[in-house]
Design brief:
Length: 202
């Protein structure tokens, strides 16, 4: 299978980690959808990465759908529970982590515009979403090492990618100060070889 991704995309990183944890071989095609000559719009009409192409030529996006496809291959270990309600709960935590990333990306994109063209309230509005999201995640991590059933799941991988993206692009947030359980969690999951091997560098 082939995964098209930009090297620093946190959504693509979630999929790369999932594939690494499951020891599924894949070809990584680096392509930035921000470049004018990007081939991404030809495989994903939405022009976003990650995009996964199966050996049979079927194409999947966006990252939660790709994660669902990878799990549907039924190769251990499993990162989405077989029980339908438990799976919904894992996906809910994934959505929270992905939503934090959406907000962080908007702040980042706004910061790249000339100062005179920046929307003043974007950082505050999106920053508030990030903070509420972090509070919700901190509350979900009341006991145990992992978010669901004390077992590594897609939720943990998604949250780990979101927290490390904040470190990478918005270090000034200093999110660890108010979220000690998430800080412990980030340190723990960040030691996994799959996280170390995919950590973005500026
Ligand atoms: N919900 C999507 C979000 C993907 C996304 O926003 N990817 C960014 C890179 S991190 C992108 O390709 N942006 C290009 C664009 O918005 O035109 C997913 O989970 O795959």
């Amino acid at each position: 299978m082939k995964l098209t991704a930009s090297p620093t995309s946190p959504f693509a990183r979630k999929i790369r980690i999932l594939l690494a944890e499951k020891r599924i071989a894949f070809d990584l095609v680096e392509d930035s959808p921000w470049e004018s000559d990007s081939g991404v719009p030809e495989i994903n009409p939405l022009g976003k990465v990650p995009v996964l192409e199966t050996d049979e030529g079927e194409v999947f996006f966006d990252s939660p759908v790709i994660a669902g496809y990878i799990e549907a291959l039924d190769l251990p270990p499993h990162f989405i529970p077989g029980d339908a309600m438990a799976a919904v709960r894992v996906r809910q935590t994934e959505a929270l982590a992905d939503g934090i990333l959406d907000a962080a990306l908007l702040i980042r994109l706004e910061s790249l515009r000339p100062t005179s063209a920046q929307m003043q309230d974007t950082a505050a509005r999106q920053g508030a979403k990030i903070e509420r999201g972090l509070q919700a995640l901190e509350a979900r991590l009341q006991t145990g090492h992992w978010f669901h059933e004390d077992k590594l799941s897609l939720a943990d991988i998604a949250v780990g990618c979101a927290l490390e993206y904040l470190d990478f692009r918005l270090p000034e947030l200093g999110w660890r100060d108010l979220h000690p359980r998430l800080a412990d969690f980030a340190a723990r999951i960040g030691r996994r070889p799959s996280f170390v091997a995919t950590r973005p560098h500026s």
